[in-house]
Amino acid sequence: MAPDDWEGWLRLMATDGVGAATARRLLAAFGPPDAIFAQSLRALADAVGEGIARRLHGTPADWDALRARTRDWLCAPDCHLIALGDAAYPAALLATPDPPVLLHARGDPTALNAPRTLAIVGSRNPTAQGAENARAFAQALAAEGVCIASGLAAGIDAAAHEGALAAGGLTVAVVGTGLDRVYPARHRTLAQRIAASGCLLSEYLLGTPPLAPHFPRRNRLIAGLAQGTLVVEASLGSGSLITAELATQMGREVFAIPGSIHSPQSRGCHALIRQGAKLVETVAHIHEELTGLWGAHASATRPAADPAATGAADPADDGDAVLAALGYEPTAFDVLQARCGWDTAALQAHLLMLELDGRVQRLPGGLLQRVVRA
């Protein structure tokens, strides 16, 4: 975008009633924003109706403040506005049904056009094993040069970003607020790390708060940036299933990691698998589906974090009888006690040791689950 062009794009998208679809209609009819604003009221009304036409002939609410805020934001060298048609605009989004007209990006915008991108999404309240799986898959793929896209949300999203950063790889966070805000606030440091080595992305104007309807809409950008979407853990009502559905509608691959039939956090993934999503246990399963799009670029050497190795990471439970009795599904204390035959005090003490070691997690409802580290 030329230095003097951004105000017209910003004014267009700040006009009340002008969303992405309306803006694209105006651009198709009249050309760039300056040409739109030069049109007569009649011409604009014929294209988008009289109400929006009159608002286009005025100035948006709080326009001076938004323009000043955006100008100050753009003074930072890592802050960018990317309009539809710019060379830096993500090519993958152009192939989606509803591409945004104006994007705010912080960090390296070339990450938005990475040749290989996988979205990793899932529950905001994952099990410890789910978070570990997200981190391990992201780290293994990022180490191979795959960009990891997610939404900066708590839980699986954050674990995926962390895994990519741990590998020194690329990650893109698509958010549902203005880029001058971080939601959740506790991810401020994570957002800064992503901006330093990847990219934060939003279609929302600066100052936009975290409104509930924004997050399902941002999910279409997460799915659209990637050639595939991996759902790690999701309940049946999870927003991650929206991302998976959008990916399917866009003709992108959908992957899901299975879990316990007793875990609510696995039911969304199991539903996706029944609907045709690829069941994933290792990174190789993702490559099997995406090699045609990605090419044979994967590293010949698997990094240590590759979850393909996790099946062999604990082959004999290190001789621990309680872990062997616990297995891999959420288990009630009394069931575990019946399996291993230990008295209550000894079993509670041993479970506490395993919890402190990060090998067992207590779930809601008094259930216990082992955690396998990659």
Automatic annotation (TrEMBL):
GO biological-process terms attached to the record: DNA-mediated transformation
Q: Which residues form a coiled coil?
A: none
Report the residue ranges that make up the DprA winged helix domain in this protein. Answer: 307-366
Query: A Pfam family in this protein?
Result: DNA_processg_A
Which intervals hold domain Smf/DprA SLOG? 81-290
Alphabetical list of Gene3D superfamilies matching this protein = 3.40.50.450, Winged helix-like DNA-binding domain superfamily/Winged helix DNA-binding domain
Q: Which NCBIfam families match?
A: dprA
Q: Which family does it belong to?
A: Belongs to the DprA/Smf family.
Q: What is this protein called?
A: DNA processing protein DprA
Instruction: State the organism's lineage.
Output: Bacteria, Pseudomonadati, Pseudomonadota, Betaproteobacteria, Burkholderiales
Q: What is this protein's gene name?
A: dprA
